[in-house]
Structures are given as structure tokens and as C-alpha cells.
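[Automated response] Your request has been received and processed.

Submitted sequence:
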Amino acid sequence: MPSGYNVRSRARERNSVLSRPEFMSLNHQPPRAGSSSGGSSSSETRGSARRPGQMKHQTSQPSEEAADSGSKDRRESGKMPEEDCMQLNPSFKGIAMNSLLAIDICLSKRMGVCASTSSSWGGCRSMVALLALTGHGITWIIGTIVCLTRSNTLAGQEVLVNLLLALILDVMTVAGVQRLVKRRGPWEMTPGFMDCVAMDTYSFPAAHASRAAMVSKFLLSHLVLAVPLRILLVLWAFLVGMSRVLLGKHHLTDMVCGFALGMLHFSLMETMWLSSSTCQTLISISTLSWSPFS
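Generated structure:
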């Protein structure tokens, strides 16, 4: 027969096994109906059954609020500023202007064949630059002053004084428009010394084209020239304007607007033409000689 010690050890082992969590349901006794302990345990059970749902609902509210705030932030970040939004229905005028500007930039870059020595026509750059120098404002102003000091006729001095005033008007007007628009040329180049002196540092409008158009029209109107000379004068004005495009300093539209501005300067100077007596007064003041021309 087994001893009492062995029986007690087996009973302790059986109780320890039944006290494990996986065997708790086997050791659990069903509560009696109507008992207070049963009522309390059932209420606790129902309460415990409700608590996960309540906790789930309570924990789901912050997550939903976080999701709502995140979606609102995404929607607010997705809204672009009005100035950054693309116009899905631009006007016909805007489309036409952008297309013309794109064509102008493309053609001007292709025509800048003398923009540098490594360009396709880089060997002709010095000749083209010399042609452009014949239409420079400083060149024409100095040449007109030299001719004025050597002129001995009233008619010649009248024409030269008005030409000098027209050149000064052209230089000042073109410089003001260039400073206002501030358009760069098709090729980024640093303005030369002569350009800085004549205040020809920007691209629009082309100062050489404006000056060439104004001078050629002025000389054609006030000088008696043969037909070949008149044709050469018009051809010179066109080549001077084109030379700046070949050098990469101006766009095609800059040259066209320069020609138009030069014609406007000529028309304005014709309406403000100074008479011979006024020109003589100006010459006397500039030379500090107050005696009239004889």
C-alpha cells in the first residue's frame, strides 16, 4: 500500500496542475442561480464583455480624428496657390503671344552664327562687329559734331544740328525703354565698353537698328543722293540691324521694333524741326560766341 506521503504529494501535484491557466475552466464551478456571487460575477462578465467594445470605440475616436486631420492636411497641401495653378483654358491672345515669343527666341538663337569665335560663322565675327560699329550711337554723335565744326553753310549747319538732336533723342529714348523692359539677348553676353557708354546694355529694342533706320531716313529726306546711293543707304540700315542679330546681341523682334522706333524718332524730329536761326543760336551758345553767324 502506498504511504501517506506519496498520496499527499500526488494530491499537491494534481492541484498545481489544475491551477494552471489552461486548466482553469476545468476547475471552475458554475455559479448558482440567484446567488449574490453569481450576480456579481455575471455583471462582471457582462461588464468585461462590454469593456472591450467600449475601449475599442474610445480608441477608435482618436484614430478617426487623426485620420480626419491627416486627410484635411493632405487636402490643404494639395491645394496649390492661385498664381502657381496652370491655366487650363488660356486666352487666344496669350497662346498667340507665347507662340510668337517661342518662335522669336528659337530663330534668334539659330541666327546668332557669329555669337562667338566657335560658332559656325565665327571667322566673320570681326567683320560683322565692324559693320555694327558703323551704326553705333557714339560713332554717329562724334562724326556729326566733327562735320558741324567743319561746315560753312547755314543749310548744312541746320541739317547737322537737327541730326545731332535726333541722335541724342534716339540714344536717350532707347536707353530708357531698355531700362524699363530689361530684356536679355538670346545669348548671355557681357556688354562691351562702347555699349556701356551708349547705355545699350539690354536687348529690347535694338539701338543700332533704331539709329540706322532714323539716320537713313533722315539723310534720304534732306540730302540729294543718286539712286545707287539711296539703295546702298537702305541696304546699310538693314545690314546694321541684322549684324546685331548675327552677333547674338538682339532678337529678331528687337530689330523690328528698333526699326519702327527709329522711324518714329524721324517723324518726331520732323515735327520739331529747328529753324536756321535757332540752330545758329545753339551753335553760338555751344562755342561761347554770341555773335551771329555771318
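Summary generated for your ticket: The CA atoms of residues 71 and 77 lie 10 Å apart. The two ends are 166 Å apart (CA to CA).
If you did not submit this request, please reply to this message.
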